[in-house]
Structures are given as C-alpha cells and as structure tokens.
TrEMBL record:
This is rRNA adenine N-6-methyltransferase family protein. The keyword Nucleotide-binding does not apply. PROSITE patterns: SAM_RNA_A_N6_MT. InterPro entries: KsgA/Erm, rRNA_Ade_methylase_Trfase_N, SAM-dependent_MTases_sf.
Amino acid sequence: MDPARRWGWHQLAEREAARLVASSPIGPGALVLDVGAGTGAITVPLLAVGARVVAVEAHPGRARQLRDRFGDDVVVVRADARDLRLPRRPYHVVGNPPFAVTSALLRRLLQPGSRMVSARVVLQDQAARRWASPSAPGVHRWGRAFDAELGRRVPRRAFRPPPPVDARVLHLDRRR
Ligand SMILES: C[S@@+](CC[C@H](N)C(=O)[O-])C[C@H]1O[C@@H](n2cnc3c(N)ncnc32)[C@H](O)[C@@H]1O
C-alpha cells in the first residue's frame, strides 16, 4: 500500500480547517484534542481562537514537524488515536483523522465516564450519516448524554490529495 493511503494522509485546506473550528463551541482556554493533527492544518485555527491544543499524531515524522512548528504552544502526543488516554477534565475534539480510525475513536470518545464536551470530526459521508442516525453504534449507551448531528459537507477538492469518497463533519455535543 502506498504510504499516503496507509496513513490516511489527506491534508485539509486552510479555509475548511477554519470553518471546522468555527463550527465548534470552543473559546479561549478550552482544552482541545486535534486528533490526527498531521502537520497542523487544524492546529493553527485552534490556536487562533485561544484553545489549549493537544495534537495527537501517530506518524513519527509528522509528530516531529508539529513539535518543530509549534514549540511550546502545543502539546504533541505521538499516539494511536484508537487507544488514546483521554483527559480527566472537560475537553473538546476537533479533527480530521483517517477514515479507518474514526469508528474506534468515536466509540472511545463516547464511552461512559468520558469528559468530552463537544466534537467536530471529519468523517466519510456515509459514516457521518450512520453516527447521526437513531441506529448509531452504541447510541443506547451514549444517546442520553450527547446529541449527534450532521454538519457541513466537505468537498473532495478541500483535501490534498483528494479522498476517494465524500466527507462530512459530524457534530457531537454534550446535553446540558
Ligand atoms: C487526514 S490526515 C489529517 C491531517 C490534518 N489534521 C489535516 O486536516 O490536514 C490524518 C492524519 O492522521 C494521522 N494518523 C494516521 N493513523 C493515525 C492513528 N491511528 N492515530 C493518530 N493519527 C493517525 C496521519 O499520519 C495523518 O497525519
């Protein structure tokens, strides 16, 4: 398999990354996990709104680039998003992880005891529709605590290289 496919490398355009962050309820000082941070396309607008960013990236070279690029402004964690240790205090998630990782990641974020407040995650369109539907995986466990809604469609041309399928943002918000 070519390395880009193996790592699910589809970099988000600056404008789409800014829109993704603007769709979230994050404000100054909020703790945010940028999952599958790549080289920082989403990290930049997160810092611009004053978030405290933890950039999670499994690829060793990209984790290094993130440290070089952001220095002390960002905590870079080289880890697999599927078995990430989650914060014990309230946190948000904004990310464009590889499509192959999203189901395992969402199950983890929605597990009982999670302190997640909100998530804006780019998914394969079909997967986003499934997670926002009444038959979403595990909804009988998390459905009382979180609302799941479909967000904006992200056109293939917003990624470099473009993915083979359409993408869409899934919104998850803890109920008040
Ligand atoms: C679709 S790219 C997104 C990069 C960046 N966030 C952006 O939007 O431009 C997905 C990123 O997730 C990383 N990645 C792949 N598998 C991962 C995993 N299991 N855990 C965490 N990151 C992973 C890849 O190396 C890649 O940088």
